[in-house]
Amino acid sequence: MERRDFIKSSVLASSSFLIAPNTILGKSHGHTAPTDKLNIAAVGIGGKGKADLRGCETENIVALCDVDWKYAKKTFEKYPNAKRYWDYRKMYDELGKSIDAVTIATADHTHAMITADAITMGKHVYTQKPLTHTVYESRLLTKLAAKYQVATQMGNQGASDEGVNLITEWIQNGEIGEVTKVECATNRPIWPQGLMTPEKADRIPKTLNWDLFTGPAKLKPFNQIYHPWNWRGWWDYGTGALGDMACHIMHPVFKALKLGYPIKAEGASTLLLRDSAPQAQHVCLTFPARENLPKLALPQVEVHWYDGGMIPKRPEGFPQGKELMGAKGGLVIFHGTKDILICGCYGLEPWLLSGRVPNVPKTERRVTYDLEDFNTNHVQDWIRACKETPASRIKSKSDFSEAGPFNEMVVMGVLAVRLQGLHKELYWDGPSMRFTNIGDNETLKIVIRDGFTINEGHPTFKKTMTDPLNAKAFAEELIKHNYRSGWSLPSMP
To answer: Are residues 199 and 134 in the same domain?
Structure first.
């Protein structure tokens, strides 16, 4: 039986396992009901996935999957009773009826397919940020989660912390007035970006399955610059500093201002390469006016992003001697008609430039588990949602109904940067997921190698460029990837 057919045929059966009491299932199945403990499988356990699993230790961790068993070794040892896998597809096929939920913390480009397959099996999912690699993948996960009524959470843990709550309440209570401009920044990347594509291959470690790591992307020769950490700086696998940090930094912007699809996007950066994200970039996304709130009008707003050393100007009146970059290497500046609100990464330490401390009604749900950190609380909020029925479920703080559209905003920034060679503001049709002002015959070329040398003290610039690319086709590929043979996504509901 084909894997996809297996998944489809097991949906009803697996869904029944999600709600049946333990006395019906029986311990012989290795399964306890959600009203007791969840049976959780994890895909990607060597990095952030290891931290996510700490938040799952109230439950049964029954299976672990990773493409690099050296990187995963400590996690394997920590949970010795969990069954070990290289390939998540095999794990799903073997354990599909006995697991309730899956955590996913692989490289960005594999999030969508691993998550989508779990959802179509009726499994709850916790997927690390960025939720997906593309706009289409984000839209797909949003719709699949709604169709299958599973509990979902993106791993932007600040969503479960107090800062995002306060920012949302202050802004929506009208404390800073109408917001027409927001500036966001990070001090990342902390991994190398703006690199030339390696010209030689390294020997693949015996502990790494490079084909499985590559997954739906084009198979390239292995080089140690790609794995296990630096994949974030390579377009095939990651989304650069923006994809890494915007899900943390921009979330209070998306939530408090009730943003949806942008209508315009424009990006600029240091040297843009075909394969590697730039060292620094600036993105501007424009959002249309939204329906007014009881205490706040929501006019058109520009949202700016800076990274790699680029940073907004200090607002007039910003305290002398105070560092502009906020807590945890992040910054958000909400420019309101009455005041300016500033916070760090995760919405941490929000404050008003006027010095006022608003006293407003608490309208946002608080996540309080009194655990070691808000990452663990964020995971626990998802676990709580998993154990509730769809009819009575209180959505987690970054449920895909919000995280999916929000992630579209984040990866739209990546699109704007990668299409900057068109040298224009791009008009975006959100519902149709297409740019409306890229002509059929427009082309662009992208640098493969910069070719910079110094000969006898004289600089020489000899860039190697791609052949002219049809801009519309290139944009369509960035919006919705063509997966490598053997890898696929479910159909859009």
So the answer is: no
The Cα-based distances of 20 to 33, 273, 362 in angstroms read 6, 53, 37
Report residue 66 CA to chain centroid gap.
Answer: 19
Number of domains making up the chain: 3
Residues 339 and 463 occupy one common structural domain: no
Cα–Cα distance, 397 to 165 (Å, whole number) = 10
Asked whether residue 288 falls in the same domain as residue 189, the answer is: yes
Residue 366 lies in a domain: no
Q: Are residues 141 and 225 in the same domain?
A: no
Half-sphere exposure of 117 (CA within 13 A, CB side): 24
Range of the domain at 39: 3-156+371-398
CATH code for the domain of 237: 3.30.360
- pLDDT tens for each residue of the chain, 493 residues long: 444 443 444 433 333 333 333 322 323 333 445 458 999 999 999 989 999 999 999 999 999 999 999 999 999 999 999 999 999 999 999 999 999 999 999 999 999 999 999 999 999 999 999 999 999 999 999 999 999 999 999 999 999 999 999 999 999 999 999 999 999 999 999 999 999 999 999 999 999 999 999 999 999 999 999 998 899 999 999 999 999 999 999 999 999 999 999 999 999 999 999 999 999 999 999 999 999 999 999 999 999 999 999 999 999 999 999 999 999 999 999 999 999 999 999 999 999 999 999 999 999 999 987 666 778 999 999 999 999 999 999 999 999 999 999 999 999 999 999 999 999 999 999 999 999 999 999 999 999 999 888 988 888 888 999 999 999 999 999 999 999 999 999 999 9
For residues 10 and 144, state if they share a domain: yes
Residue 222, Cα to own-chain centre: how many angstroms?
A: 25
Same domain, 43 and 139: yes
Q: Identify the bridge partners of residue 41 per DSSP, sorted by sequence position.
A: 63, 102
